[in-house]
Every structure is written in structure tokens, then in C-alpha cells.
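User: My instructor asked us to take a sequence, write out its structure as C-alpha cells, and then describe one feature of it. I'm not sure where to start. Here is the sequence I was given:
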Amino acid sequence: MPDFLKIIQVVVIIVSFYFIGTTAYRLITEAIPSKQAVAEMTEKAKQDLTFFKTMLDRYKKDHGDFPKTEVGFKALVPKYLRYVELDPWGSMYQYEYHVENPIIYSAGRDLIPYTEDDVY
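Assistant: Let's start with the prediction itself. The C-alpha cells for your sequence are:
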């Protein structure tokens, strides 16, 4: 009988490792988007930024200047935008006031401003 219990223990361990491994694989593959998904998210961010730029130009035409950094995109709500949506990575779009053209961008996939994956 002890040999039978050892076999059951080994089977339980093997099945447990199988489920842990497959669960870990699914979590990792879902957490890391494919190159195509990253490209699509980047394109969506570029489209959003183009739209924001258009709304900022309208704001400047009506008010004579762009909103200051402290106010940022909030100045566009509700007259120019119903709301300011998040970028495709779930982070706020960034806004910095400059007299000629404000800097608007997404911090990108790593969510850290001023890194190589930022989207302008």
C-alpha cells in the first residue's frame, strides 16, 4: 500500500505543476501584448494626439493662447471635448504648455515619460 500512496503523490505533484505552468503561461502571454497589438495601440495614441492637437488649436483660436500646463487638457472639457480619455495603456496623456506649440504625448507602454517608447 505505501507504494500506491507514493504513486498518487507523484501524480498529484505532476498535475499541480501542469496547472501552475499553464496558468503562468496564460498570464504571461496575456500581460505581454504582441508586436501587432503594440503597433495598433501606438497608432491609436497617434490618432488621439492628432485630435487633441486640433482641439487645442480651436481653444487657442477662441482664447488667444493654449491652456497652461497646470490646467492642461481639462481646459478643453466640456466645450471642445466631452472628456479626456486615457491612452491605450490606461495612462493619462501628457500636456506641457509652450507658447508656440504645447507638447502632448503618451508615455507609452512603459508608462514612464521621456523614454524611447513615448508617442508624440
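For the description part of your assignment, you could build on this observation: The mean pLDDT is 89. Try explaining in your own words what that tells you about the chain.
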